[in-house]
């Protein structure tokens, strides 16, 4: 029986998803898993779950840059802010959704992230996305055209809806079957899960789910 793939749900808008992506190919290889990058629209996830993005909280905005810069330094990966943030990621997400081959899609994800958060010039316009498509060795005109088709727009929407239905509330989210891991800081837990060393084995999770609430915030 084939092992479940690592379904990596992401949006180019998120620097945390970029940082997690830099580790995902090696994690998948170490554990003999197929890596499936799944583009989702973070705004759609947030709207569906009643959540807000970290950069939408003014007190967090400056901290996030410092935090992600420190993580990038720790991981030894290039890091630089895009030309603007938040930006509109729809074109880059749809182009990615149009690539069926998983290896080619992974190359494109790496190339687009390099342009978004690795010191590149952004991924918002057709010209910017073309740079990444060419770097990934893909047919830029064909994929830019595909990104405008309704079936590709629907594919991105469906990816987003399926992620939310499976429990996603933000990005990056990694699914291993029904198990969910959120955030770049959860990747160590992901590896322990893949090794069969998850400390949650035997824990009564239903007790946690059913705890009564005695306080609420208006």
How would you characterize this protein structure?
The chain is an alpha+beta fold and 218 residues long. The chain has a single domain, classed as Glutaredoxin (3-Layer(aba) Sandwich), CATH 3.40.30.10. Helices cover 51% and strands 8% of the residues. It has a four-stranded mixed beta sheet with strand order 2-1-3-4, sandwiched between helices. A hairpin with a 2-residue loop joins strand 3 (173-176) and strand 4. Helix 5 crosses helix 8 and helix 7 (126-135) crosses helix 8 (140-147). The longest helix has 18 residues, at 58-75. It is globular. The termini are far apart. The mean pLDDT is 96.
SSE order and pairing:
Elements: E1 6-10, H1 15-21, H2 24-30, E2 35-39, H3 42-49, H4 58-75, H5 90-97, H6 102-117, H7 126-135, H8 140-147, H9 150-165, E3 173-176, E4 179-182, H10 187-194, H11 205-209
Parallel strand pairs: 1-2
Antiparallel strand pairs: 1-3, 3-4
Helix pairs in contact: 3-9, 5-8, 5-9, 6-7, 7-8
Q: What are the defining features of this structure?
A:
218 residues; alpha+beta; Glutaredoxin; four-stranded mixed sheet
Written as H for each helix and E for each strand, in order along the chain, the element string is EHHEHHHHHHHEEHH
Major β-sheet strand ordering: 2-1-3-4
Low-confidence stretches: none
Proportion in helices? 40-55%
CATH class: Alpha Beta
What is the beta-strand fraction? 5-15%
Oligomer: single chain
Q: State the CATH topology.
A: Glutaredoxin
C-alpha end-to-end distance: 49 Å
Look at the structure and name the CATH superfamily: Glutaredoxin
Overall tally of structural domains: 1
Structural class call reads: alpha+beta
